[in-house]
Amino acid sequence: MGKIFGTNYPVSICFIVVNEFCERFSYYGMKALLTLYFLNYLKWDKDLSTAIYHAFSSLCYFTPILGAFIADSWLGKFKTIIYLSIVYVIGHVVKSVGAIPTVGSTDLHIALSMSGLILIALGTGGIKPCVAAFGGDQFDEEHTTERQKFFSIFYMSINAGSLLSTVITPILRGDVQCFGGDCYALAFGVPAALMVVALVVFIAGSGMYKRTPPQGNILWEVCSCIVFAIKNRWNRSKNDPSRKHWLDWAEEKYSMRLIQEIKMVIRVLVLYIPLPMFWALFDQQGSRWTLQATRMNMAFVRVCLREVMMLNALLILIFVPIFDLIIYPLVTLCGIKITPLRKMATGMVFAALAFGAATLVEVNVVKTVVNPAPAGSSLLQVVNLAEGDVSLKALDADLSLESIQYLADPPQYEILPLSNGQLKFQITFNGSTFQCSEDAQQHKAYSVIVYPDTDAISCKLVEDHIKKNEDGNPLLRFLNTQPEAVNITVGDVNFYVPPSYDVTLNKTVARGEYTDVICASESGNSSKLNLGLLDFGASYTVILTEESGKIATHKIVDVKANNVHIAYQIPQYVLITAGEVMFSITGLEFSYSQAPANMKSVLQAGWLLTVAFGNVIVLIVAEGAGLEQWIEFLLFASLLLGVFIIFSIMAHFYTYVDPEEVEKIYLENSVREEDDSDLKKKNNEMELKKTGKSTRM
C-alpha cells in the first residue's frame, strides 16, 4: 500500500476523504431544501413538515446500527459501503424524480419523496459508521499519530461538503427556474450526481485499500454471550470469587477473548451514556439559534439566515488546523497531559459556555418582543385619530389611560381580561363619554382606533400582528383616514388601502429606507411618501392623513425593531465550534481506537446513536417544558455542566486499552497454548511407549 509523498499516510485515504466530501455535499445539499420542499412544493403545513423533517433526521442516526451489523458480521466495511451507497444513489434519484411536476399526481410525488427519503436514510446511516472506521483501518499499527490527524482531516471534509452544499443548492433552487417555478428537481439532482461521484471515487481506490474481513455474526454472538452470562449468574446460588466481572459467568460457553472484547466495548458504551447532552445543545444551532437570529438586527452587512447556519461549518475548517498545529502542542508544552477523554470533557465546557453566551444574548433580544397575553386576556393599545385628547377606561378591569394625544405613538400594550369574549371600555372626549364593546380572543393583541364621526367619535377594534417575522424582515400596514382609496407600492410589495379609517393586512417588506414611496389615488392623483427606515423585526402602522392639501404619513411602532446586532451571536458560535472540535473529532477517533478489530463499526454506530438521543432530549425539553427561551438556554447549559462533572468522574476511572496489543497477547497466548498442547501430546506418547515396553517385559 503506497504512501503519500514519503509520509506515513496511505494513498488510499485520499479516495476515502474525497468520497466523504461528496457524500456530505449530497446529504446536506438535499437536507438544506427539505423543509422548503415540504412547505412550497408538497403544500404541507409547518407542523407536518417539521415532524417529517425530524423523523428523517432521526432515522439517519438510528440506521448506523444496521450498517455496523452488516459490515462487522457479514459483508465487511468495503462491500457494505459500496452496496449501501448504491441504495443511497437510488434514493436520491427517486427523490429527484418526485420533484418533477410533470411526473404523475401529488400523491405520486409524496410517495416518491417518502420512498426516496427512506432509501437515503438507509444509505447515509448505513455507511456512516463504516467510512470513518474503514479510513482508520488503512493505517499501520504504529502510526497512531497519523491516524488521529486523519480523523481531523476526515471531519474537515464533512464540513467542507456541508458548507459548499448549503451555498450552492439553494441557488440552484431559487435562481434557476424550471417547469414554471423553483427548480427543486435540479436542486435535488445535483446532490444525487455528487453521490454518484462519491461512489465512483470510492470504487476507484479499491485496489489500494487495506481490508479487514468480517468476523461472522459478531453482534449476535455478543448479545448471546451477554444473555448467557446474565442467565448463568442468575441461576447460580453462590458467588464465585474467581469471577470478578459479571461477564466472566459466560466462560463456560464462550472464549475468554470474546468476553474480554465485550468488556472493552461495554466500558466505552457506558462512558457514552452522558454524551447525548452535548448533542442536545449542539444541534440547536439549526433551530433555536436560527430563530434567535431572526429577532436580531442584521444591519451594516445583510446577513441571510442561510449564512448564519453556515458559520459553524466555516469555523470548523479554520479551527481544526489551529487546534492540531498550535493549541494542542502549546498545551502539551505547558506540561498538561492531553488525553481523548479530557479533550471531550473540555469540549462540553465550551458548549455550556456557548449556551451561557446565548442566554445573555436572548435576555437582551426579548426586550423587543411582545409576549402574547395570558389565558383569558388580550393585549390592547389605543390609537387616537380624533383631533383632541381622549381618555380610556376599561369597564371590567382596573385600567385607566388619561390624556391620549392625537396621533401619539402608543407607549406599550396593556393586558386586559376578557368578559364573555369581549373588550369593554369607556372613552371620554371633550367632556362627553362613549362606550365601546368589541369581540376579541384571548392571547391576541388589538389596537383600539378612536376616530371622528358624526356622533363626535367612534371606535373600532383591529387585530395586531405582534409575532416577529420569521425571516427577520419588517411588517407593514396602512390606516387610511382619507375618503378615497389609494394604492401604495413599497419596494416590490403593493398595498390597496381602503378609505375611511380602514386598515390593511400586515405584509412583509424588505428592510430599508423608504423616502420616495409611490402613492396613487383612485382619482388618478399620485404623490410620494416618506416612510423613513423600516427596520429588522419591527411591525409598523402607517397612518395616512391630509396636511396642507397633501397626503402625510404618521408611523406608529407596534413592535419594536431588533436592537441587538447579529454579530453578538459570533461568540456563541465560536465557543460551540471549539467544543465540537474537541468533542466530536476526538470522539470519532476514540471510538475507533478503543474498539476491537471486529467491532469497530459497532462502536462507531454506538457513537452516532448519542446524536440521535441528543435530539430526543431537545424534543422532550423544548416541547414538554414550555419555558421561556432564555431560561431554556440556561437550563441546557446547567445540565451540560452537570453532565461534564459526571463524565469527568467516569473518565478518571477509565483505563485506556490498545486493541492491537490485546490482539497480540491473545495470539501469543494462543501460540503458547498450542505449544503446551503439543508438548503434552508428546509427553503422553512417550509415557505410552514406556508403559507398553514395561508391559511386554
From TrEMBL:
<dbReference type="InterPro" id="IPR036259">
    <property type="entry name" value="MFS_trans_sf"/>
</dbReference>
<feature type="region of interest" description="Disordered">
    <location>
        <begin position="677"/>
        <end position="697"/>
    </location>
</feature>
<feature type="transmembrane region" description="Helical">
    <location>
        <begin position="308"/>
        <end position="331"/>
    </location>
</feature>
<feature type="transmembrane region" description="Helical">
    <location>
        <begin position="51"/>
        <end position="70"/>
    </location>
</feature>
<dbReference type="InterPro" id="IPR018456">
    <property type="entry name" value="PTR2_symporter_CS"/>
</dbReference>
<keyword id="KW-0813">Transport</keyword>
<feature type="transmembrane region" description="Helical">
    <location>
        <begin position="602"/>
        <end position="621"/>
    </location>
</feature>
<comment type="similarity">
    <text>Belongs to the major facilitator superfamily. Proton-dependent oligopeptide transporter (POT/PTR) (TC 2.A.17) family.</text>
</comment>
<protein>
    <submittedName>
        <fullName>Solute carrier family 15 member 2</fullName>
    </submittedName>
</protein>
<feature type="transmembrane region" description="Helical">
    <location>
        <begin position="184"/>
        <end position="205"/>
    </location>
</feature>
<dbReference type="GO" id="GO:0071916">
    <property type="term" value="F:dipeptide transmembrane transporter activity"/>
</dbReference>
<dbReference type="InterPro" id="IPR000109">
    <property type="entry name" value="POT_fam"/>
</dbReference>
<dbReference type="GO" id="GO:0015293">
    <property type="term" value="F:symporter activity"/>
</dbReference>
<dbReference type="GO" id="GO:0015031">
    <property type="term" value="P:protein transport"/>
</dbReference>
<feature type="transmembrane region" description="Helical">
    <location>
        <begin position="633"/>
        <end position="654"/>
    </location>
</feature>
<feature type="transmembrane region" description="Helical">
    <location>
        <begin position="152"/>
        <end position="172"/>
    </location>
</feature>
<keyword id="KW-0571">Peptide transport</keyword>
<feature type="transmembrane region" description="Helical">
    <location>
        <begin position="264"/>
        <end position="282"/>
    </location>
</feature>
<keyword id="KW-0812">Transmembrane</keyword>
<keyword id="KW-0472">Membrane</keyword>
<feature type="transmembrane region" description="Helical">
    <location>
        <begin position="82"/>
        <end position="104"/>
    </location>
</feature>
<feature type="transmembrane region" description="Helical">
    <location>
        <begin position="343"/>
        <end position="361"/>
    </location>
</feature>
<dbReference type="Pfam" id="PF00854">
    <property type="entry name" value="PTR2"/>
</dbReference>
<feature type="compositionally biased region" description="Basic and acidic residues">
    <location>
        <begin position="677"/>
        <end position="690"/>
    </location>
</feature>
<dbReference type="GO" id="GO:0001878">
    <property type="term" value="P:response to yeast"/>
</dbReference>
<feature type="transmembrane region" description="Helical">
    <location>
        <begin position="110"/>
        <end position="131"/>
    </location>
</feature>
<keyword id="KW-1133">Transmembrane helix</keyword>
<dbReference type="GO" id="GO:0016020">
    <property type="term" value="C:membrane"/>
</dbReference>
<keyword id="KW-0769">Symport</keyword>
<keyword id="KW-0653">Protein transport</keyword>
<dbReference type="InterPro" id="IPR043381">
    <property type="entry name" value="SLC15A2"/>
</dbReference>
